[in-house]
Design goal:
The complex is a heterodimer of chains A (299) and B (199). Chain A is an alpha+beta fold and 299 residues long. Chain A has four helices and 15 strands. In chain A, the strands form three sheets. Chain A has an eight-stranded mixed β-sheet with strand order 2-15-14-4-12-6-10-9, with no helix packed on it. The longest helix of chain A is centred in the first third of the chain and has 35 residues. The radius of gyration of chain A is 27 Å and the shape is globular. The N and C termini of chain A lie far apart (88 Å). Chain B is built from two helices and eleven strands; from the N terminus they run αβββββββββββα. In chain B, the strands form two sheets. A six-stranded mixed β-sheet of chain B has the order 2-11-9-4-7-6, with no helix packed on it. Chain B has a five-stranded mixed β-sheet with strand order 5-8-3-1-10, with no helix packed on it. Chain B is elongated, with a radius of gyration of 31 Å. The chains are: A alpha+beta (299), B alpha+beta (199).
Chain lengths: 299, 199
C-alpha cells in the first residue's frame, strides 16, 4: 500500500515537473519570440489618392540597419505616331537616397528622358550617360534600361518623361519602373518613412507592392499600397487634357487606347455625373468642362 | 586704391567671370536648346466702343504633333467681354468665359495636329470707354504631344485691345415712316390737283 502511495506520489510529482517545465518554456518563448519575430511592413493609409502623404513603418529588422525599400510597377503604354512614352508629373522625391530604374521592352536603342526640375531651370534632354543616368540596351530582346542610382537631388520634379521609339509592328510597349529608397532603422529595428505620392500614377492593377529588405540581415517584408486618382485615365499621375484625349480616343476605338494601356475602371474614368455606368465620350467632355471650371466635381 | 585692393578686385572679377562662363557652358551643353512652341494672340489697336472683333489664338513652332492644350486668356473684364470662343482646329473645344480669365481646352479624338494650329477664334466686345486698353495675356496650363508628354520649351506672344470712339450715328432708314410720308404727300398732291381742276 505504502509502495503504491509512493509510486502515485512520484507520478504526481513528475506530472507537476512536466507542467512546470512547459510553463517555463512558454514564458521563455513569450520573452524570446519578439527577438525572432518576422519583420513587418505597414503602410498608412493603405489606400490613397495620388498626392497624399503615406507613412511606411517597418519593425523586426536589425538595430541601426540600412533597409532598402523597393516599389515596382509594370505598365503598358500605347504607341502613338511612332513613339511611346511614360510620363510622371510633379514627382516628389523627398529622400535623397532615392534611385530608380526603368526597363522598356520592344524598343529600339533610342530611349531618352526629358527632365524638368522646376520652372526657370532648363529642360534637360537626356539621351546618353549623363547627370547620373546610365543607359543600357539589349539588342536581342529589344530592351532598354535606364538606371539613376541614389543620391538624387530632392524636390518636386515637374516632369520626368521617358520616350522611346518601338520596334516595327508593336502597338503597345511594356514599361517596368522600380523606385528604390534607403532608410535606417532605430535601436529597436524599426523605421518610419513618409512618402509623398504626388506624381505617382495609379497603377493598372490598382496597387503597388512595396518591399523592405534589410541590407545586413537579409530580412524582408512586403505590403501593398493602393493609389487611385479620379480622372487620371492616362496614368501619368495628374488629371489633365490628355485624359480627355485618352477617353475620347478610347471611345472612337483608336488602336492602343484600351483597358491594357488606360485606367478605365469606373472609379477613375466614369466621371460624368449625368451618365453613369460606362466610360464614353460624355466622360471626356465632362472632364474637359471640369478642367476649365464649368463643373465643380468628378463623379 | 592700394595695389593690394586692386589685386583683390581683379581676382573677384575673374572668379565671377569664370563662374558665369561655367554656368553658360553647363546650360548650353545640357539643356534642350530646341526653339519653343509658341502660343500667340494678335492685337486690335482700334476696336470701336460697343462693337465686336474676332482674334485667333495660334499654336506654332512645335516639332511634335499636338493632341491637346489648355490655355487661359487673361483680360480686363471692364474693358472687353469675351462673347464667343469657337472654331479652331481641335476636334473638341470647350471654354469658360469666367470674367477676367477665359479658360479654353481643346483636344483631339483622332490623330494629333501639326503646327501651325488655330487653337480657337476668340470674339471680344468692347464694353469699356474710348482710350481704354486691356492686355490679352496667354497662360499655358498644358500643351501635350500625341502620346501625352508635355511639350517644352514654351513661349507666349500676348496681345491687346484698345477701344476707340464709336462710329458716328447714322439715322436708320425707316421704311414705314417713309411710306406714310410718301402717302401723305401723294394725298396732298392729289387733293391740290383736283382742287385746281374744279376751279
Amino acid at each position: 500500500m505504502k509502495r503504491r502511495m509512493k509510486k502515485k506520489g512520484r507520478k504526481i510529482k513528475e506530472g507537476k515537473r512536466i507542467k512546470q517545465i512547459l510553463i517555463a518554456a512558454l514564458i521563455a518563448a513569450a520573452f524570446v519570440a519578439p527577438a525572432f519575430a518576422a519583420p513587418t511592413l505597414t503602410v498608412t493609409p493603405s489606400e490613397c489618392i495620388s498626392g497624399d502623404l503615406v507613412t511606411l513603418r517597418g519593425t523586426g529588422f536589425d538595430a541601426s540597419e540600412i533597409v532598402t525599400l523597393t516599389s515596382t510597377c509594370t505598365c503598358w503604354k500605347p504607341v502613338i505616331e511612332g513613339q511611346t512614352e511614360c510620363c510622371l508629373l510633379k514627382f516628389n522625391i523627398s529622400n535623397k537616397k532615392t534611385g530608380f530604374s526603368l526597363v522598356v521592352h520592344d524598343v529600339k536603342d533610342n530611349v531618352t528622358i526629358d527632365l524638368r526640375k522646376f520652372w526657370g531651370i532648363p529642360f534637360w534632354h537626356i539621351n546618353h550617360n549623363m547627370l547620373g543616368f546610365k543607359f543600357t540596351y539589349d539588342p536581342v530582346n529589344h530592351t532598354s534600361k535606364v538606371v539613376r542610382p541614389a543620391p538624387i537631388p530632392t524636390g518636386v520634379y515637374e516632369v520626368i518623361d521617358v520616350i522611346g521609339k518601338p520596334i516595327d509592328g508593336v502597338c503597345e510597349v511594356e514599361m517596368e519602373t522600380t523606385v528604390t529608397t534607403e532608410v535606417t532603422t532605430d535601436g529597436t529595428g524599426r523605421f518610419r518613412e513618409v512618402v509623398d505620392t504626388h506624381g505617382i500614377p495609379a497603377p493598372k492593377a490598382g496597387k503597388y507592392t512595396v518591399k523592405a529588405i534589410g541590407k545586413t540581415s537579409g530580412l524582408s517584408a512586403t505590403t501593398d499600397l493602393r493609389v487611385k486618382l479620379k480622372g487620371d485615365v492616362s496614368r501619368d499621375g495628374i488629371v489633365g487634357a490628355y485624359d480627355c484625349v485618352s477617353i475620347a480616343r478610347y471611345s472612337v476605338g483608336l488602336p492602343g487606347y484600351n483597358a491594357q494601356t488606360l485606367n478605365l475602371d469606373l472609379y477613375t474614368a466614369d466621371v460624368c455625373c449625368f451618365y453613369q455606368g460606362e466610360v464614353d465620350i460624355d466622360d471626356a467632355r465632362w472632364l474637359a468642362r471640369y478642367l476649365v471650371g464649368l463643373e465643380t466635381k468628378l463623379c | 586704391m592700394s595695389e593690394k585692393g586692386k589685386h583683390k578686385d581683379g581676382k573677384r572679377v575673374a572668379v565671377v567671370g569664370l563662374m558665369a562662363l561655367a554656368l553658360l557652358v553647363l546650360t548650353a551643353t545640357t539643356a534642350n536648346c530646341g526653339s519653343p512652341v509658341i502660343v500667340s494672340i494678335g492685337n486690335i489697336p482700334d476696336l470701336p466702343q460697343g462693337t465686336e472683333a474676332t482674334i485667333p489664338v495660334k499654336i506654332t513652332n512645335s516639332v511634335q504633333p499636338v493632341s491637346s492644350a489648355r490655355i487661359s486668356l487673361l483680360y480686363d473684364p471692364t474693358v472687353v467681354e469675351i462673347t464667343k470662343v469657337e472654331g479652331g482646329d481641335f476636334d473638341e473645344l470647350i471654354f469658360n468665359p469666367d470674367g477676367g480669365e477665359a479658360q479654353i481646352i481643346g483636344y483631339q479624338f483622332g490623330g494629333s495636329l501639326y503646327t501651325p494650329i488655330t487653337f480657337a477664334d476668340v470674339t471680344v466686345r468692347a464694353i469699356g470707354n474710348p482710350g481704354e486698353t486691356t492686355p490679352l495675356n496667354i497662360k499655358i496650363h498644358e500643351i501635350n504631344m500625341g502620346t501625352g508628354s508635355p511639350i517644352y520649351p514654351r513661349s507666349v506672344s500676348n496681345g491687346s485691345v484698345t477701344i476707340t470712339a464709336p462710329p458716328p450715328a447714322v439715322p436708320e432708314f425707316n421704311i414705314v415712316g417713309v411710306s406714310v410720308l410718301t402717302g401723305i404727300l401723294s394725298l396732298f398732291l392729289v387733293i391740290s390737283r383736283s382742287g385746281k381742276r374744279e376751279k
